Amino acid sequence: MNKIIFHIDVNSAFLSWEAVYRLRIRGEKTDLREIPSAVAGDVKKRHGIILARSTPAKKYGVRTGDTINDALKLCPNLVMVPPHYDLYESCSEAMMEILKEFSPCVEQYSVDEAFCDMTGTVGLYGSAVVAATLLKDKIYSELGFTVNVGISTNKILAKMASDFKKPNMVHTLFPEEIEQKMWPLPVGDLFFVGPASKRKLHALGIHTIGQLANTDPDILRAHFKKYGEVIHAFANGIDLSVVAEEAPPNKGYGNSTTIPFDVDDGSTAKMVLLSLAEKVCTRLRADNVMATVVAVSIVDIYFRHSSHQMTLISPTNITNEIHKAACKLFDRLWDGTPIRHLGIHTSKIVRGEVYKQINLFDMNRYEKLSRLDAVVDTIRERYGEDSVKRAIFLKGPVYHMAGGISPEKRKPMYKEGITL
Amino acid sequence: MKMLNMPVDVIATFNVQGKIRPNYIRLEDEEHTLQTFKIENIVFSREEKYAGMPAIHFCCNIIRNGCAQLIHIKYHVKTHQWVLVREG
C-alpha cells in the first residue's frame, strides 16, 4: 500500500502567531496579517533583519532576511513588531498536539513545520484531501492561525506541495502529478537547492526542476558529487526517508552572538566567549553528553569570517574547560581587528558513560568543577537563568548567558495593556 | 481610546468537578473608583486555545445601575489571570 504523508507548514509563522496573540489575547483591533507588517529584530542591538513578513508586505518585495533599512526603503509604512519567542513555542506546541490527535506518527521538522504519516487513516477521516482540510480548519478555528498542507506519498513531495500557493490551502503532489505540477517550477524552488547551487545549475543550463530531473545523473555527479544524486532524486520525487518521531541525536552543539558594540580588546572578547561557553555547556550537560572538538568563529567589523578548531585530550562538558580551549583558539585566531560576532561550536559528541583521562596537573579540579556545574544547573533550572552568575559579569557590558534567545526576545514589553 | 483586554479582579468558585464559576467582578467606573458587581448568571462559557494559550471565555450578566449588562470575561489557565474582553 502506498504511504500518505502530510506536510504542515504555518503561513508566515512568526507573523501569524504575533497577529493571533494581538487580536485574541491582547484584544487589539488591527490584524497584522492584513497590513504590510513584519516581525523584526532590534536595529540598536544590530539584530536588524526581517524575521517574517505578512502577505501584503510580500507584495512590496520585502523578503525574510532583508535588513530593516532595505525593507523600509521598499515599504516605508511597514509596521514592525519585536519577536516573542515564548509565544512561538506555545503556538508550535499547541499545533503539534492537534497533529498528534490526527496521526500516530508526527515528526516536528522545525518550529512551524511538521510531517505526519497518515497512511491507513482513510477509515477515520475519509480521503487524504478531506482529512487535510479538516486538519487545517481545526487548527484555524482552535488556534487562530492558518496553515498549508501538502499531501503526497513521501516527504519531499509533500513538502514541495505545501509550498505551492499560500495561505490556508491544501495541495496534493502525487508521483503522477510531478510532471505537471512540479517540473515547470524554477530549480531554485526545489527543496535543498540554495542560492549557490542555483547559480551553479543555471550555469549548466538547468533552469527548471523538470530539466534537472531529466539531466543525466552522471553529469550532476561530476559537478556536485553526492549532492548531485540527492537533488536529482528529489527532482524526480524520490525520497526514501520515513517520518521519524524522534529527532536524530545532535551532532554538535553551538552558540553564537552578535555583540551590540564592536569588541576591540581581548578580555571583553573572552568574556563573551565565557558567556557563550556557559550556554553551550549547559546544553551539553542537560543532554548528558560530552564534546571532544571545540571551534571558535569570529566575524569582524568588515564582515570577514574566520574560524579555528582543536581536539581536546578527552571529552568534556565543563564550562571552564571549554572556555579555556576557546580562549586558546581565540588567541591563535584573532588578528586585532574589532569584532562584531563571536561563536563557539562543539562537535565529536560522546554519549553515555565516558572514561575521563585525568591530567596529572589537573589537581583534581575536574571532579570539583563538574560538581559545581551540576549544582549551578540545578539552581538555574529551579530559580531561573539569572539566579546565579559569575562575578565577572556583574557590572560588565556582556549578558552572562549570551546567544540563543535572549530574555527580551522571549517576552517583549508592550506599551499598554497586558502581557500574558 | 478603547481599552484593550483589561486585567480585572474576580472572585470565582471551583467545584469538585473542576468547573469554574465567576461570582463577583470588580470594575473601574468613569471616576476611576472600583465597584464590585455580582455576576447574576452565565449565559455561556467556552474553552479557547488561541495562540496556544488555554483560556475559558465566559459571557455573563451583571446588574449595573439597575439594569442587566452583558460582559465577556476570560480566565487564562496558564497565568491564572482574569481579563475583561468587552462590555455589552
Structural class of chain B: mainly beta
Shape of chain A: globular
Number of strands of chain B: 7
- Report the biggest beta sheet of chain A as strand number plus sense, adding barrel if it closes: 5 strands, mixed
Average pLDDT rating of chain A: 87
Work out the oligomeric state of the chains in this entry: heterodimer
**Residues in helices of chain B, as a percent range:** under 10%
CATH A-level architecture of the largest domain in chain A: 2-Layer Sandwich
**Secondary-structure element sequence of chain A?**
EHEEHHEHEEHHEHEHHHHHEHEEHEHH
> Whole-Å distance between the termini of chain A?
47 Å
Enzyme class (chain A): transferase
GO molecular function (chain A): damaged DNA binding; DNA-directed DNA polymerase activity; magnesium ion binding
Family (chain A): Belongs to the DNA polymerase type-Y family.
Cofactor (chain A): Mg(2+)
Short description:
The complex is a heterodimer of chains A (420) and B (88). Chain A is of the alpha+beta class and 420 residues long.
Features of the shown structure:
heterodimer, A: 420 residues, alpha+beta, Alpha-Beta Plaits, 3 domains, five-stranded mixed β-sheet, disordered C terminus, B: 88 residues, mainly beta, seven-stranded antiparallel β-sheet, globular
Characterise the protein shown here:
- The complex is a heterodimer of chains A (420) and B (88).
- In chain A, strand 7 (147-152), helix 7 (155-162) and strand 8 form a beta-alpha-beta unit.
- Chain A starts with a strand and ends in a 10-residue tail after the last helix.
- Chain A has a five-stranded mixed sheet. In chain A, strands 9-12-10-11 form a four-stranded antiparallel sheet. A three-stranded mixed sheet of chain A has the order 3-2-4.
- Helices cover 40% and strands 20% of the residues of chain A.
- Chain A has 420 residues and is an alpha+beta fold.
- The model of chain A is unreliable at 416-420 (pLDDT under 50).
- Chain A is built from 16 helices and twelve strands.
- Chain A folds into three domains: 1-177, Alpha-Beta Plaits; 183-235, 5' to 3' exonuclease, C-terminal subdomain (DNA polymerase, domain 1), CATH 1.10.150; 253-407, 2-Layer Sandwich (Dna Ligase, domain 1), CATH 3.30.1490.100.
- By secondary structure, chain B is an all-beta fold.
- Chain B has one domain (6-87).
- Chain B is built from no helices and seven strands.
- Chain B has strands spanning 6-7, 9-14, 20-28, 34-48, 55-64, 67-76, 81-87.
- Chain B has a seven-stranded antiparallel sheet with strand order 1-7-6-5-4-3-2, with no helix packed on it.
- In chain B, strand 2 (9-14) and strand 3 (20-28) form a beta hairpin.
- Chain B starts with 5 loop residues before the first strand and ends with a strand.
- The model of chain B has no long low-confidence stretch (mean pLDDT 89).
